Amino acid sequence: xxxxxWFCLPLHLLMVACLCxxxxxxxxxxxxxxxxxxxxxxxxxILADGKETTIHLLKDIPKxxxxxxxxxxxxxxxxxxxxxxDVPIEWSILMHKASASFLGKAARGDPGTQEVSTAxxxxxxxxxxxxxxxxxxxxYMGMSSHSxxxxxxFLSTERDTHITVxxxxxxTSGHLYPELPMDPRIDVIGIGHTTxxxxxxxxxxxxxxxxxxxxxxxxNEKHNYKSLCAAETAIxxxxxxxxxxxxxxxxxxxxxxQQVMILSNSELSIINKASNGEVRQTCVGTKNTYTxxxxxxxxxxxxxVFVVNLLxxxxxxxxxxxxxxxxxxxxxxxxxxxxxxxxIVLDGKNQKFYSLxxxxxxxxxxxxxxxxxxxxxxHITKNGKTVAxxxxxxxxxxxxxxxxxxxxxxQLRSTEESNxxxxxxxxxxxxxxLFPLLPExxxxxxxxxxxxxxxxxxxxxxxxxxxxxxxxxKRLKEDQVWVELQSADRCSGPESRHKSEKVLCKYFYDIxxxxxxxTETIKGLDAGTLYLFDVYLFGPxxxxxxxxxxxxxxxxKC
Length: 558
What we know:
Elements: H1 2-8, H2 11-22, H3 29-39, E1 45-46, E2 51-57, E3 63-67, E4 77-84, E5 89-98, H4 100-108, E6 124-134, E7 138-143, E8 148-155, E9 161-168, E10 186-191, E11 196-200, H5 204-208, E12 213-220, H6 228-237, E13 259-264, E14 267-274, E15 277-283, E16 289-292, E17 300-309, E18 315-317, E19 321-324, E20 333-335, E21 341-346, E22 354-359, E23 364-373, E24 376-382, E25 385-392, E26 395-401, E27 407-414, E28 420-427, E29 445-446, E30 456-461, E31 467-476, H7 481-487, E32 502-508, E33 517-522, E34 530-538, E35 544-546, E36 550-553
Parallel strand pairs: 1-3, 20-22
Antiparallel strand pairs: 2-9, 3-8, 4-7, 4-9, 5-6, 5-8, 10-11, 11-16, 12-15, 12-17, 13-14, 14-15, 17-18, 17-19, 21-28, 22-27, 23-26, 23-28, 24-25, 24-27, 29-30, 30-33, 31-32, 31-34, 34-35, 34-36
């Protein structure tokens, strides 16, 4: 029975069983630990060949994996690649080699192997063939021996963590990990205020398997990452959420609430909003030069490039680099003149501030802003201290009190990605207002019950000041409504309208504001047709104020 037991064991179990049976009195502490591990072999883990294994480590508790290479693979090369995914770890490879004659006796069922005296020991040798401590991706390449048992020991002394381990003896059918070039550095070839241009040498894997390989870039303000799983771990621990790999994260359906996806120039970027900053990931296909856009001026960024195998999701990291964007130049400041109106177009794409400066010649002054298009943020300081800051809509007045020669700085920017436009005036002459007195609301109301096939009745509010009101109409198609309303310039007057669009002009006012309402029935319209109606209010200065446009459709049947 014992003879059959020895004969039937697979080679790697046979080795362990023989070694365990033969060990009686260890000579060194390291051999003692190793032999103890051998006795617990059946409760340990065997490392799979040709497969990436994820291993979780508890702080200060070593974890051991074993592997024995097939007998037919004697003296063949093998590699072990270990990727720390967080903190530095310690890991080593130990080889326990038994004599071939002892293994031969055990395999034949020699009774001499069943009982070994305390004085007898099987000729064995334990040696550490590799050890490493750190958080870099490290690969060991060696030659296998069919009479040796290998043990990998891993230890984390900082905190609980996880790693990935890849063992392979097949060096002929390609690599799980994409190859890096001889020079894996990332070069910075251009730096701007909001951009950094990078280049790197092509991976041999890209040149051989272009359709299955791509480059992915990671950008953050903290530090470089030595592996993709290290970056993923850092993002998760800081409150963000990253998909399993960059290669798979290209699907918008995998996005988490902390993520923002940006599609620009056919390249997909995903920004992970973490509590300590953001990590931006962009996959750029097989291009090896890329300009990173939308960075902040005067900020240091860290850049990592990973070459990713789309079939296996395995990746290899280039040597990361860093660069500091240039300082933003001082914005040009335009001097405001008392009483003069200027119109400013703000670039929504760059989100830059437009600066205006005014030196007071009176103690009381008034800033007037008329929003023409888009959305605008206004920030006003007096001698460096903020006195007003808000988003404006329609017409907005800021009446301020100070001292002679106080310096006011007005900063304007678009809060939309599209361009915005605004008119600005500063004046110390309160008794000569540039714009007319405004009603409580600039909305135009239409009466559904008074609609007919060829007429529409509208109403709007007036003021206590006699003013001129002009009504204009424009025929629209269904697909023109949204574009017409979004692109309307609320600062433009009737001079921008075609003469055929004018309906009428009238004067009215009422001391009692509750009765300062006027109505108008516009006739001669076509049945079942959309019309855009506008009302312009003219004040003493002649500068018009445009009410909010109203779209009404006449009845199709009457």
